[in-house]
Amino acid sequence: MRRYAQSLIKPGKKYIDLVDLIEGKVRELLKASKIKAGMAFPCGTSINNCAAHFAPNPGDTKILGEHDVIKVINC
Q: Among 42, 47, 50, 64, which one is least packed by beta carbons within 10 Å?
């Protein structure tokens, strides 16, 4: 998951699209491993000065900038 998320995080990417792709990969891996449980939490992120546990809402228009720092957690 870490490598997959790193491959997605690029300037110009919509923040919500990034989170949707990561959550989709988690679901894919859960299904492939035949685990009977689902995701416990949505993908948590933080960006720049946000301390932790932020997830974009539907319709969020934030675009990742060249100097943005993003942390992906709960995946």
A: 50
